[in-house]
Amino acid sequence: MLRLTHTLLAAGALIIVFASAAHTQDKLSPTSVSVSGDGPETIVLLSGLVGGVAGYRRLEARLVAKQQRVVIIDPYLLSIDSTDVSFAAQARRVDRVLDSLGVTDAKVVGHGHAAGVALRLAANAPQRVRALYFLDVGALPDHRSPVFSASLRFVPFITRLPGGQGFVRRRFVRALHESSGPNPWLDAATERAYTEPMFDGIDRAISLAMRLRRASEPEPLTAVVARVRVPVTVLLGGAPHTGGPVDGELSALETLGSLLRVETMEGVGHFPHEEAPDAVARQLLEPHREVVAATPGGAR
Description:
The protein has one domain: Rossmann fold. The protein contains 13 helices and seven strands. By secondary structure, it is α/β, with parallel strands linked by helices. The model is unreliable at 1-30, 146-151 and 293-300 (pLDDT under 50). Helices cover 41% and strands 13% of the residues. The protein has a seven-stranded mixed sheet with strand order 1-3-2-4-5-6-7, with helices on both faces. Helix 5 links the parallel strand 4 and strand 5 (129-135).
């Protein structure tokens, strides 16, 4: 078990879950699903454990200006009261939202843990997805991590101590800066947008985080990747930063062969959509890549 001192240092990272999950008491509220623009093509943006729908506003503005219909979904808010919070279950909820909006053949973007949701969506509801884009992440097998396992139980205690909320807020802002490249996206207004909702309904958010820690996927990652038949573009932050893919996340995608493209964005950290929204928009607006899908066993 991690010592309490280590737990305090981890609190900034843990609160990522809470910041995304604590915005609202209504899991179908406007903050979990946003639709804008009325172009002929749809781009779906899935938020990870930090940022929520608001974290995509810079990228959304660029895409709407280019006559794209943009659907932003926070799968963690959709799942805040759900028993099954696996990537597969979250993908089913996203699929239902997209079905209700009549979305098919969309470009689907996943930041951080949302890439795990996007990958299952492409594998299990292929009619929804034309292409996948992963932002500073690879293929995730599940939500488990040592931080979840060892430290989560202490966060309610920390936030209830005198000065505890301020401590966690400062740690979270520090973690955002450490995850970013050398650019000015984290101004005072953005810091407030990421941190102010943090402590609303925190007990409910912690319950979600505990379920994420215990969640099991119904099938191995290799089986999921084997069913993906669309191009996958991974946009990695090239600046020194915390976060990003860990060992195995990119190699798990190598069986995609010519479907896989990995690019590094210089001067960018873990938040390409916030740090370089124009560059990410250009990637998403490129003409559809025509490639031959991989088949089971690696044959093409």
